[in-house]
Design a protein that fits this description.
480 residues, elongated, binds fe (ii) ion, 9 strands, Rossmann fold
């Protein structure tokens, strides 16, 4: 039986080829993209089965499905991806034998291959050894050892050097290479399922999830993949809350989908500032949850739609602040899911009273445009008006959210508005929000050439007081 395996992650592709050939007595050819697979088929190569990933540069699994449909092929197709069949636009155009969701790929793949095996073709493998070889580089990629690892002493003698749960870092890899002159270790064939699944898990890119984090199922799937127990818990909580808001607001008009370009831009800022992919994914889930809450409340939905319909980049402003405030909150010692949720909600609500013709958010102390007395008053009053509006509509948000909305134009040195609060009189979460607001304005005015150290240097004097100092310390820990 001849199989074509289409997988862009080289380590996973090579491991699957080696282990399936060994265990299943099949012939497997591997390629790294949809286009490479199409080229093989066009060249007349024949296969009894295609196993393909979906997201790949240079031709996706979807492109391959399109080609198979157009060329009226009849080769059975198995999707092996971190995306479910229902998430794939091309799913209906070609018959799909089965869909295998990463990372637990090994057993379902073996079962599907067995289903297709022609009568008379034996799966009796040509197993000559109880061990298979794995390069040190691949082991380091998995990082936490997933099954016992051995070194080979002679033809038939192996000794165990690592146990399940041990760390195998890049340094360990170098040590084995330099002192033991080894470039690979051995895994028992019996452990190949654990090994292949761990490898599949290590190749799943957290970033690939960030597009889909408005869906409780994707959030839960990501939570299952993350090892950090705090992040895992937070993501599970968000998935649960999002399930509830989905029930309350099934038809969001302004959805994360329509804000996607702004999400992408905000994510690029967050990445450039040095936040980890895990934080980026968690924050995306938080931002989506906050948006669902706003869109699930009729009066707020109207206000937000009005604001976003104005010229002046309010969508980008709100989404950027939501992302940056939540990211900063994720590196504070008191980080919590609740804190991120409040900051993201406030980001969508803080300027809703600026919706209207000439309203702009400007620094009243140093206005860059000439404002009429009426405009000045309107700007000065918008923080208090937002809170009053929420109260008049019986939106009883937590006390901190009110403080963020009320204080978002206060300054550490007391020159802000409306109350001229200073230093630690400004609420801790409001302080994070103000820093995020400053950071967004700094990024916008330095179009693409921003760096966190430059921003912190610029604000060094001003941020020496109150909670601002602790925020600076936490941001410096990002190590840039
Ligand atoms: Fe504002
Ligand atoms: Fe604002």
């Amino acid at each position: 039986m001849k199989i074509l395996l289409v997988e862009d992650e080289e380590d996973l592709r090579e491991a699957l080829i080696r282990i399936l050939q060994l265990k299943q007595n099949v012939e497997i050819h591997g390629v790294d993209s949809g286009n490479a697979a199409i080229a093989k088929l066009k060249a007349g190569e024949s296969y009894q089965l295609i196993i393909s990933d979906y997201n790949m540069p240079n031709g996706s699994g979807g492109d391959l499905l399109k080609y198979l449909a157009e060329s009226k092929s009849s080769i059975p197709f198995i999707l092996c991806s971190s995306m479910e069949l229902s998430e794939i636009p091309e799913a209906g155009i070609y018959p799909i034998l089965g869909s295998v969701l990463k990372p637990d790929v090994f057993r379902p793949l073996v079962a599907l291959i067995e289903k297709l095996r022609p009568i008379g073709d034996s799966s009796d493998n040509k197993l000559s050894s109880q061990f298979f070889r794995v390069s040190l580089e691949v082991i380091a990629k998995i990082h936490t050892v997933c099954c016992p690892l051995f070194i080979q002493l002679s033809e038939s003698k192996f000794i165990k050097v690592f146990n399940t749960g041990d760390e195998f870092s890049k340094e360990e890899e170098t040590r084995f290479r330099n002192t033991k002159k080894l470039d690979s270790l051995y895994v028992r064939v019996d452990d190949c399922e654990i090994f292949v699944n761990a490898l599949a898990k290590s190749t799943i890119q957290i970033q690939s999830f960030t597009d889909k984090l408005n869906n409780p199922k994707s959030i839960q799937r990501l939570a299952d993949l993350i090892d950090d127990p705090v992040l895992k818990n937070d993501l599970s909580d968000i998935a649960m809350m999002l399930r509830v808001t989905e029930i309350n607001a099934p038809n969001n008009i302004l959805t994360a989908e329509s804000l996607k370009p702004f999400y992408r831009k905000a994510l690029a800022h967050v990445e450039k500032l040095g936040f980890t992919p895990e934080v980026m994914a968690l924050v995306t889930a938080n931002v989506n949850l906050a948006l669902s809450v706003v869109m699930g409340t009729d009066s707020l939905k109207e206000s937000l739609k009005n604001l976003f319909n104005q010229k002046g980049g309010h969508e980008s402003h709100s989404v950027d602040i939501a992302y940056l405030a939540c990211s900063i909150a994720s590196v504070m010692p008191w980080k919590s899911d609740a804190a991120r949720h409040k900051l993201a909600l406030a980001a969508f609500l803080h300027d809703i009273e600026l919706a209207g013709d000439s309203a702009q958010e400007v620094d009243l102390m140093h206005p860059s445009v000439n404002l009429t007395a009426k405009e000045k008053r309107r700007i000065r009053e918008h923080p208090e008006k937002v809170v009053a509006k929420l109260k008049s509509q019986n939106c009883n948000f937590a006390y901190n959210i009110e403080q963020i909305l009320l204080q978002h134009h206060e300054r550490p040195d007391g020159t802000g508005y409306p109350r001229k609060l200073m230093g630690s009189a400004i609420d801790p979460l409001a302080s994070v929000f103000i820093v995020a607001h400053d950071l967004v304005q700094y990024i916008e005015s330095n179009s693409g050439h921003h760096s966190l150290p430059d921003f912190l240097k610029l604000k060094e004097e001003e941020y020496k007081v109150g909670h601002f100092h602790k925020i600076v310390v936490a941001m410096q820990s990002l190590g840039m």
